[in-house]
């Protein structure tokens, strides 16, 4: 497994991978296929990913097998943390969001998710961040358990527009030791 910085030239490959992992994580039986397709068509397109990859506030990491087959990715984004986050980490430059972190279903439960998360946390720490935060769907029990094992703690919630449906996500944070 290799993890590398993704570039704009990875947009098409990343769009395919993001659509696959979104359907695997949130499709039936969790949500109707039409709802997931609606979200994918509105949020995971090559032009959207090209813009996100070019955005200096975003950092993408692409995970591949030794043969180059992509199996996952992460997106970190620098912006203002939620008000519910402890004040010490809301100060400018103190926290970064792990906005997306996904592996294809065939590779979940084999330790690659932990390696990708560790890579993101290490990168954030080296960049001088004191904490990372993320949002996770309240009904994604597997992800919630994973984040708990990784040392994340819940500090609030927000609503996320998933296609035409409004869903609740929990905010989680993890302090980094700098």
Q: Please outline the major beta sheet.
A: 7 strands, mixed
**Shape by Cα distribution:** globular
Reading off the top of the CATH hierarchy, the class is best stated as Alpha Beta
The succession of helices and strands, N to C, reads EHHHEEHEHEHEE
Helical content (DSSP H or I, runs of 4+)? 25-40%
GO molecular function: acyltransferase activity, transferring groups other than amino-acyl groups
Protein name: GNAT family N-acetyltransferase
Pfam family, one: Acetyltransf_1
InterPro entries: Acyl_CoA_acyltransferase (IPR016181), Bact_Acetyltransf (IPR050832), GNAT_dom (IPR000182)
Description:
36% of the residues lie in helices and 31% in strands. The chain has a single domain, classed as Gcn5-related N-acetyltransferase (GNAT) (Aminopeptidase), CATH 3.40.630.30. The chain has 178 residues and is α+β, with helices and mostly antiparallel strands. The protein has six helices and seven strands, in the order βαααββαβαβαββ. It is globular, with a radius of gyration of 16 Å. The chain has helices at 11-26, 33-43, 46-54, 87-90, 112-126, 141-149, and strands at residues 2-5, 58-64, 70-77, 95-103, 131-137, 153-162, 165-175. A hairpin with a 5-residue loop joins strand 2 and strand 3 (70-77). The protein has a seven-stranded mixed beta sheet with strand order 1-2-3-4-5-7-6, sandwiched between helices. InterPro entries: Acyl_CoA_acyltransferase, Bact_Acetyltransf, GNAT_dom. It comes from Spirosoma validum. Residues 1-177 form the N-acetyltransferase domain. Keywords: Acyltransferase, Transferase.
């Amino acid at each position: 497994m290799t993890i590398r910085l993704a570039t704009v030239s990875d947009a098409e490959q990343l769009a395919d991978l993001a659509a696959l992992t979104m359907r695997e994580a949130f499709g039936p039986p969790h949500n109707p296929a039409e709802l997931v397709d609606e979200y994918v068509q509105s949020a995971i397109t090559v032009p959207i990913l090209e813009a996100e990859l070019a955005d200096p506030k975003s950092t993408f990491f692409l995970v591949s097998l030794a043969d180059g087959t992509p199996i996952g990715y992460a997106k970190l984004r620098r912006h203002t943390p939620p008000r519910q986050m402890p004040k010490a980490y809301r100060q400018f430059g103190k926290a970064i969001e792990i906005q997306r972190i996904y592996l294809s279903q065939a590779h979940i439960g084999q330790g690659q998710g932990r390696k990708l998360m560790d890579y993101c946390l290490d990168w954030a720490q080296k960049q001088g961040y004191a904490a990372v935060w993320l949002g996770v769907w309240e009904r994604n029990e597997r992800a919630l358990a994973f984040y708990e094992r990784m040392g994340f703690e819940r500090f609030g919630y927000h609503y996320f527009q998933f296609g035409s449906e409004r869903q609740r996500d929990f905010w989680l944070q993890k302090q980094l030791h700098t």
